Amino acid sequence: MNKDLIQRMQELINFYVQDKEFMGTVLVAQDNDILVHQGYGFANIEWTVPNDTNTKFRLGSLTKQFTAAGILLLEERGLLKTDDYITQYLPDAPKAWSNIKLFHLLNHTHGIPNYTQLPEFRAITLCTKTPYEQIQLFIDKPLDFEPGTHYCYNNSGYVVLGFLIEQLTGQSYAHFIHDAIFAPLNMNDSGYDSFTEIIPYRASGYLKDPDAQITNAEYLDMSLPYAAGSLYSTTEDLLKWTQGLFNFKLVSANSVKKMTTSFMDHYGFGVEVKEIDGINVVMHIGGINGFHTALIYVPSTKTTIVVLSNLNTFGYVWDIGFIAQNIALKLLSVVHGIEVTLPSEKCSIKDTSETLEQYVGEYDIKLNLKLIITLNNGQLEAAFSNQPVITLHAQTEAIFYSILPDIRFQFLRNKAGHVVQVYLSQSGYELKGTKINDR
Predict the structure, then answer these.
(1) What pTM did the predictor assign?
(2) Beta-sheet strand order (sheet of 429-437)
(3) Per residue in 90-100, pLDDT tens?
């Protein structure tokens, strides 16, 4: 690997570290060749314990790919089929679930409401709940849509999958994942997170609030994310995971193919399968109290990129795993020879206040979310509903960007020349806003 590319990777990581947007551990490897592996910031701020390559982080939704692999293992053992209806294993399931297959649970096309979005979930975040008790939160709720007709990312399906693993194996989910996945792959620094258990080298989770103050993250009982988000690991163990999975040490090539085949909206079984800048990747991100995570694997170059962070930054619009994902996607580009420009390196132009005034107004993004563009001392500023103000810099007459968070704003005009829409893009996600008034 070109030393300049490795240096460039370090520069882009340090950009986020220096602005206190990221602390954690990063690993970039091509096959067995480790290009970058380093900790940044603190695993524990109060004791000034630094993050290093041994630090253990909560994975959040990276957990889902281990749950999916567990289901595929059970299929290979003849205990289930992913095309089976879940009522075959849950005889007490409501009639509304009668058309839901394991397949639908694995790729978020089942229609069961997301339990972590239910009002009653907030009231139990301090409580320990069994998988069965968690399922009772949503078992009687009407489906959001008919199974197989839509994709909607969701935690409930993976809670049901974890429960099925326990019913079929007679083991707890935590013990099954350890025995069936972690132990065979020598992932000795991975496990199911627990408040009561002493876990050496475990990072504390932090939140950077809207006033840029770092605080301890809110407590969350780790029985609740369960098979959708309760595992912890290290960067090195996740390298063992991608190598083991894609070298078919855990499940067969056929099972890996099933896992990494996109069904709807680029989602397979516990992983996203998509093309980014012409590169086919298998990836996922995670966000859980105090932690952001991202894991990318490129089959064609055997590249693994792991970004694990123990600092949540205050969300902008759709922030789940954004800093980790932002860094991971930039590393993906650099390692494959694609030029990356950091926000601080972009050239800005000077627009007159008269020009900027055309963009001022209120934009309807989606239900209950508005974007307010204002002009302050000759500088455009943007604020989403109930979120901090961010400064916009003009890249062209119609395209603006913010440095942190790294968001691109593109304004569109109608045939009469009036500004009518704005497109926002961040870390591969896009939103459209329609101008509803000039304020």
Answers:
(1) 0.90
(2) 390-391, 379-384, 369-376, 361-366, 429-437, 419-426, 407-413, 399-402, 393-394
(3) 988 999 999 99
